[in-house]
# Entry
Amino acid sequence: MATPRKVSLAGGHEIDVDVDDVVVEGPAKERGKSRPPARRRGRPADSDGLTRERIVAAARACFAESGYTAASTHMVAARVGLTTGALYHHFASKRDLFLAVLEEVEEQFDASFRAVTAAEPTLFGKVEAILSETVRLTTDDPTMAGFALSVTIDVARHPDLREAFTSAWPRRDTFLGHVVDGAVASGEVAAADRKVVLDTLTTLITGLLVVGNGLPKAQARAVEGMKRLLAGKFPRGMT
# Structure
């Protein structure tokens, strides 16, 4: 229960104040309410993994909208609400940031393609599922298609990006390679044609991504045409 006491004010007036409402500084502070516990020093809780994810997502949007040349680390940092110095704690340069986005986008496609093809027993069914999933991914997140377009343009203009992009090409075998390897094992594809089929699928997906940047209807029609082509039902002229 609070204990009232008299407190003198200027002019000789007195008021009743509950002792429990008084914060006392120094050793006697236990007689009143204590101060809030001091904050622990150190980086924010999300300064590592979560902040890095936010930076990569913001960079993907910036590269998709402006391209590699026009996009800047300052632009990315501002989008996340960080200083440029804080961004450099995670990425040493804009090039490193671009390559991190490239890897993150590839991993997203890999995980999605594996998920949608798992239940499909044939190569035709797997490819159809991949084509449809490409449309879904770029529709749900247009920056995916925008970044893919940025890659095709920027890699041609910047030799340092081209070298990294080319050296990473074998890694793309993990995205569609499991599909082609399954088809080889089942006899749907000859072992000698593995690379041909793999590069064809990779080119189809890349083309769909580029077309999907601002042309979603054209992308959907292209997917339909590819499915018909695979099924041997591609539109033909009168004979």
Notes: The CA atoms of residues 66 and 150 lie 8 Å apart. The domain at 99-230 is CATH 1.10.357 (Tetracycline Repressor; domain 2). Residues 94-117 form the longest helix (24 residues).
